[in-house]
Each structure stands twice: as structure tokens, then as C-alpha cells.
Design goal:
The structure is a single chain. With 292 residues, the chain is of the alpha/beta class. It has two domains: 54 residues, Orthogonal Bundle (Helix Hairpins); 217 residues, 3-Layer(aba) Sandwich (Pyruvate Kinase, Chain: A, domain 1). The chain is 60% helix and 14% strand. The protein has a five-stranded mixed beta sheet with strand order 3-2-1-4-5, with helices on both faces. A hairpin with a 2-residue loop joins β4 and β5.
């Protein structure tokens, strides 16, 4: 049975832990507000860019002239671009992404397809290497404050892999921010750029044609790489906000658990102290009776 000193030591230790988790919760809340502002500022532009590029990909007259629109004749390898965090203590944030990555890797392996793992974040890099997987390219130090330059560097590598036909498809796996306590796992194809679904026979999206100014080739040469950069930048921002929200929630839960433990330890300490006092009274009474 624990002594009073042991219980007091546990209470002190738990209180110190609660101070740390409270501080981490406040830090994550401040970082979340900054990340959320950046993410929400980009969303309308990114959404419009994706819609426009898929629209142009649908009705482009010379799709095979543009490497990022052209589907390869055979599917032999895929690249998985996985975005995780650089630090832990964020609940299931990293685990969910890595679980999806491992499932995708197994699925591709079962089909006999080659895989290239492109990983952002120290947690993802370390976990996948620990499991014996080959990480073909990695980036770290991007999760707290990702920049557009970070997205450009990643996008250039991804585009080189696709245009050189080292891979035939590129998938992006990351956490999409919904609320501070809810993230949605995303597994989307970014290359080749997928066309919109075309509606005919009186449906709401008829076939259309575009007049390009400047020339179609000039527009696509400029916008196609930018589309990949924007898609990756948006994923980096969404992942950053999701990580801070997940960490804030995890630290709040940890603080509440610490409060419960302290209350439990305090009750145990009071019971032990009461038992000790009762024992001392009994000893005094017994001694008095023995003296007659």
C-alpha cells in the first residue's frame, strides 16, 4: 500500500505534468489561429484553381501535348506524397496518415506496381524507415509554418518524376482541416490532372469550347505547374492547421486526465491520513488502558 509520502509525490508529479500540457495547449491554440488564417485565405483561390484546371483539362484540344495532362500508356509505378508532422503529442494525427500510406503501399504491392514514397515530416520519415520501407525523398521542418517556397520545391520534384515517366500517377495523402477537433483524411490524385465529369443531354454541364488568349500552349505551360504547387501548398497548410488542432485537443484531454488523477490521489491521501490518525488514537487508547 502506498504511503502518504508516495501519494504526495504522485500528486506533485501529476501537477507538474498538467502545467506542461496546459502550456502546450495554449501554444497550440495560438499556432492554430495563425495557421487557420493562412489556410482560409488560400482556400478560395486554391478551389478556383483546381476547378479551372480540371475544366481546362476537360476541354483542351491538344491534351497529349502537355505532359501533366497526358496519361501514360501503362501504369507501372505510383508516387505517394505523404504529409505528416515534425512532432508527436498530437493524438492520432500522424497515425491516421501513416496508416493510409501503409495501406496504399500494400495495395500497390499486391497489384505488382512500383512505389515511390515522398514524405513530408519527421514523424512520417522515421516511422516508415523504422518499418523497413524505402523513403525515396523526404522534407522536414515544414509542419509549423509551411511556405510557398516549400510547396514549389516539393512540386518540382513531383513534376520531374511524372514527366520523366518514373511514375505514372501521383497521390497526395494528408489531413484536411474541418474543426480543431476534427480532421478528414484525404487521398487524392494530383497527377495526371483529372478532367471534370461531362454532362450531356440536358444535364447541367453541357459541352463547351474555349477561346484562349494568349495561346493554349502558353496558358498551360504557365498554369499546369502552378496548379501542382497550389495543390501541395494547400495540403501543407491544411495539414499544419490540423496538426495544431489535434495537438491542442490532445493536450486538453491530457490536462483533464491529470485533473482526474489529482482528485483520485487527493482522495487516497485523505483516506490514508485518516487511517493514520485513527491508528494513532487507537494506540494511545491501548497504551492508556495498559497503564491501568
Amino acid at each position: 500500500m502506498a504511503t502518504l509520502q508516495d501519494i504526495r509525490r504522485r500528486i506533485t508529479s501529476t501537477e507538474n505534468t498538467r502545467k506542461i500540457t496546459k502550456a502546450m495547449e495554449l501554444v497550440s491554440a495560438a499556432k492554430l489561429r495563425r495557421a487557420q488564417v493562412r489556410m482560409e485565405a488560400l482556400r478560395p483561390y486554391a478551389g478556383a484553381m483546381v476547378e479551372m484546371m480540371r475544366d481546362l483539362a476537360t476541354f483542351a484540344t491538344e491534351k497529349n501535348s502537355f505532359a501533366l495532362l497526358r496519361e501514360h500508356d501503362t501504369a507501372q509505378a505510383e508516387a505517394l506524397l505523404v504529409i505528416t508532422g515534425d512532432r508527436g503529442l498530437a493524438g492520432a494525427f500522424n497515425a491516421n496518415v501513416l496508416r493510409a500510406c501503409l495501406a496504399a503501399d500494400r495495395e500497390l504491392g499486391a497489384k505488382g506496381l512500383g512505389r515511390k514514397l515522398l514524405v513530408v515530416g519527421k514523424k512520417g520519415i522515421g516511422t516508415l524507415r523504422f518499418r523497413g520501407l524505402v523513403v525515396d525523398q523526404s522534407w522536414s521542418g515544414k509542419s509549423d509554418r509551411p511556405t510557398y517556397a516549400d510547396a514549389e520545391a516539393i512540386a518540382h520534384h513531383v513534376i520531374d518524376l511524372y514527366t520523366s515517366e518514373q511514375v505514372d500517377r501521383v497521390r497526395l495523402i494528408y489531413n484536411h482541416f474541418k474543426t480543431p477537433i476534427e480532421q478528414t483524411l484525404m487521398d487524392v490524385q494530383i497527377l495526371p490532372i483529372q478532367p471534370q465529369e461531362i454532362y450531356t443531354e440536358g444535364r447541367e454541364r453541357p459541352l463547351v469550347s474555349y477561346l484562349y488568349e494568349p495561346e493554349e500552349a502558353d496558358i498551360f505551360a504557365s498554369l499546369l505547374p502552378r496548379y501542382v504547387e497550389i495543390a501541395i501548398y494547400r495540403a501543407l497548410l491544411e495539414s499544419s492547421a490540423s496538426e495544431q488542432g489535434a495537438r491542442m485537443s490532445a493536450m486538453r484531454n491530457a490536462s483533464e486526465s491529470a485533473d482526474d488523477l489529482i482528485a483520485e490521489y487527493t482522495l487516497s491521501m485523505n483516506r490514508a491520513r485518516q487511517a493514520s490518525i485513527t491508528q494513532e488514537i487507537l494506540e494511545v487508547v491501548a497504551g492508556a488502558e495498559a497503564l491501568g
